[in-house]
Amino acid sequence: MLTIITENQHSIEEAQNLSKIIQTVLGKDYIINKIEPYHKFEHSYSIHFENNSGKNDIQHGIATTDKIASPWLVYFDDEQYSIELIFNKQSSSQFKNPGFEAILWGHWQTAHSL
């Protein structure tokens, strides 16, 4: 699962347009699962993508998230057998598409992959 939190999205249509661009970059294996307002920030939406490819390992996660922006932080939990990639927008963030600058935060997670 990949979750993206946006900023400066003043309508659901803007979030839908951004989600379609992200989906195109990610490929046909990722579907848009849900788009909803993210009430923690003004003019913000939460976009949830589901991966239907069956690939859920860290190499796939890194290759997938790198298509969007960088850098992503890696969190590893041996007890829970999970790996997470977290993106937090900073002044040094690099976006693979100018439209992706509306991304404030991202989260990709795999569980029980070890």
Description:
With 114 residues, the chain is of the alpha+beta class. The chain has one domain. It contains two helices and eight strands. The chain has helices at 12-26, 58-65, and strands at 2-6, 30-37, 45-51, 69-70, 73-77, 82-88, 94-95, 103-111. The protein has a six-stranded antiparallel beta sheet with strand order 2-3-1-8-6-5, covered by helices on one side. The protein starts with a strand and ends with a strand. The mean pLDDT is 91.
Notable characteristics:
single chain; 114 residues; alpha+beta; six-stranded antiparallel beta sheet; two-stranded antiparallel ribbon; 2 helices; 39% strand; globular
- The coarse silhouette is globular
Order of helices and strands: EHEEHEEEEE
How are the strands of the biggest sheet laid out side by side?
Answer: 2-3-1-8-6-5
Please bin the fraction of helical residues. Answer: 10-25%
Q: Number of DSSP strands? A: 8
What proportion strand? 35-45%
Give a brief description.
This protein has 114 residues and is of the alpha+beta class.
Q: What is the topological layout?
A:
Elements: E1 2-6, H1 12-26, E2 30-37, E3 45-51, H2 58-65, E4 69-70, E5 73-77, E6 82-88, E7 94-95, E8 103-111
Antiparallel strand pairs: 1-3, 1-8, 2-3, 4-7, 5-6, 6-8
